[in-house]
Amino acid sequence: MKNSIIEERIPWKSRIWISLADSSVAMLQTIVGGGALTYYFTRVRGLEPNLAGLVWLLFGIWNAINDPLFGFISDRTKSNLGRRRPYIRYGAPILTLGFIFLWLDLPASQGMMFSQMLIGLFVYDILYTAIATSIYIMPYEMAVSNKARSSIFIWKIIFMIFPNVLPFVIAAIQPGPGDDPSAYRLLLIGMATVLGLIVFLSTYFYEEKVFAQQDEQFPFLKSLKESFLNFAFVIFLVVSFTVIYIQTSLMQGVAYYFDEIMATPLPLYIGLAIGIVFGIVFWIRRRDPWGVKTCVRVWLAAFAAGCLIMLVGGKLLLPAAIGFFLIGVGFAGGMYLIPIMNGDVIDYDEQRTGLRREGMYAGINSLVTKPA
């Protein structure tokens, strides 16, 4: 058994296609959740901001419960395709249609625009939750060992470049008040069609372990309770939330930082990029010799050191470049090690309960980290 785990391999096509699907869904969500949709409805189409705010309030109430609820449902799913792939394959066309519906040029009355935004968001997000949660879980369904799982996470990090760059592209091409949004709408609809097709086709290139379908799952409330009784998971949630919050705050604050120091950002961005590349290689090489726990401690220490250097010497170019480098190392650690850490938590839960409950854990993690 030991040798079979050590020698476990995931085919290249499986790693690439699951990562492509992950990146495709993230690109759609970047547009919907990143402000472009609200800007389009309020500034381009003329929806009253208070009505847009009401849409997001109603949507937020539903969004607070749908993640763990779907995780619970997916854990109990049994089909010939597995527990996760049916949602990805058959949900992709509906996700695409929900996204397209948000951008249709329907009659521009306040009531119609309010209804369009609300209904479109609900349809889109139900399928987004189902698909994104299933894709997030798939590496743990596809592989048993951390080595095999990490070979998937590396590709996911690479393909995450696209959703990270997309906001800058959208900001450059989105129409302003009074501009004709027709070309913009067609571009987004075409992009959604291609991305939805990628997500759909991806399900033909990877498989999940079928033994987990035989598990009889806990009822919802007991499953929720057992998740929080797993102390390793509670620690994971604290680390995951903190890191995502800090990384998001840093990325959003970079523009203000450059305005404050009045320096060219290029050397610092280079330092950040080098840190990320170095970090990915470093953590891959250190994962087995050090173990995941030690890697997490060192990664958090490097990230904290980079932030401290920025606080003390951030107005000087050399200390700032070093700080950005260490932050890049920490950023790579978070992208690579947090999913592996999550896999260890899920594996430990299986030892405790005898059940594979990736869906419930993914749903709770998504719920807790959303405010970050």
Keywords:
single chain, 372 residues, mainly alpha, Growth Hormone, Chain: A, globular, disordered N terminus
Structure notes:
With 372 residues, this protein is mainly alpha-helical. It is built from 15 helices and no strands. The radius of gyration is 21 Å and the shape is globular. The protein has two domains: 2-205, MFS general substrate transporter like domains (Growth Hormone, Chain: A, Up-down Bundle); 220-369, no CATH class.
Q: Could you report the average pLDDT, rounded to the nearest whole number?
A: 88
Major sheet size, sense and barrel closure: none
- Text of the CATH class of the largest domain: Mainly Alpha
Give the ordered list of helices and strands: HHHHHHHHHHHHHHH
Which geometry do the CA atoms define? globular
Overall number of domains: 2
What is the count of β-strands?
Answer: 0
Structural class: mainly alpha
Low-confidence sequence ranges: 1-5
CATH architecture of the largest domain: Up-down Bundle
Give the radius of gyration: 21 Å
State the helical fraction: over 70%
- The CATH topology of the largest domain, please? Growth Hormone, Chain: A
Strand content: under 5%
Number of helices: 15
CATH homology-level superfamily of the largest domain = MFS general substrate transporter like domains
Distance between the termini: 40 Å
